[in-house]
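Q: Make up one entry.
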Amino acid sequence: MKQTPKSRRSTLCQILNLTAAAALGWTTMGSALAADAYPNKPIKIIVPFAPGGPTDIMGRVVAKILGDALKQTVFVENKAGAGGNLGTDAVAKSAPDGYTLGIGAISSLAISPGLYPKLAYDVHKDIAPITLVGIAKGAIVAHPSAPFNDLKGLIAYAKANPGKLNYASSGIGTSNHLASEYLQSLAGIELQHVPYKGTAAVIQDLLAGNVLLSFESSLSSAAPHVHSGKIKAIALTSGTRSKLLPGVPTVAEQGFAGFDVPSWFGLIAPAGTPKDVIALLNRVATEGLKSPEVAERFAQIGAEPAPTTPEKFDLYIREETHRWSQVIKRANIKPE
C-alpha cells in the first residue's frame, strides 16, 4: 500500500520515539552499571595537615575502613598549608566522581569562612559532607611555675594583671586561638596572644618556660607532659572529661556551663559527587567508625569517633561556621 505524506510522518515519529527510548534505556543502564562498579580504581583521601597529627591519624583510619569494606586501594595524600585551607581547596576543585575525598577540619570548614574575606572555596557550595569522623578534646595547660593551678586562679591572676599574661596557640585563627578568645569574652579577662607555627613549637617553649600558658586543641601532644609533671593541666576545653586526663575538670565544670570547644574532623567530597556514592561512603565509614578498634585508636589521641549522616554533618558545619564567625567578629581577629 502506498503511504501518504501523513502516514510517512507518523511512521517516522514512531521510529524516532523508539530510538530515543532505546537511547534513554542504554543511558540509564550505563549509569546503573557505573554506579554498581564504584569503586573500580584507587581512592585518594587528601589530609590538609602534615603526617602524624590527629587529622592525619583519622584520615588513615578512614582510609583503612573504606579500603577494607570496598575491596579497593584507598591512600592518603598529605597536602598541608594555610591552616588546612590548601588541602580542602584541592578537594573542592577535584572531579566529583568519588575518587578524591578529604578530611575537613574545624579550621578549614568552620573557622576559615569567617576569617578570610576571599577564601578560595565556598564550604557550602563546593563541599559535599559525608560524615563527621572524630572529635578531639583540648586543654588549657601551663608551665609548673605559673601562679595558678585551676581556672578560677587563672582568671583571678589575669584580672589582676590585664594584658600581661601571655598564652601560646598554634596560630592565628586556629581552634585553640578561638577557644581562648571565647573564654576571654565570657570571663571578662584580657590575655596576650603569642601565635606559633604549629603545636610542636608551642610545647617546646611551654616546657622551657618561655611561655606560661597554652590552649591545646588536642590532648595527644599535652597529656604525656602532664603525666610526667613537666606541665600542668588547668582545664579541658571540651564539654566532657577525657580518659587521657580523667582528673582534670572541664571549663564548664569550673563555672562556665555550656562551654564546649572541641576540634572536629569529617570526611568530605567535592560538591556534585553522585548521591549514591555519598550514601555508600557514609554507610561504610559510619559502620567502621563504630568498631571498638577505632574507638581505642582514637582514645590514644584524646578523641572519640563521631559518625553521623551527611545531612546532620552539613547542619553541624553551618552551626559551627555561624558560631565562630561571631567570635572572630567580636574579637576583631584578622588573618596573618
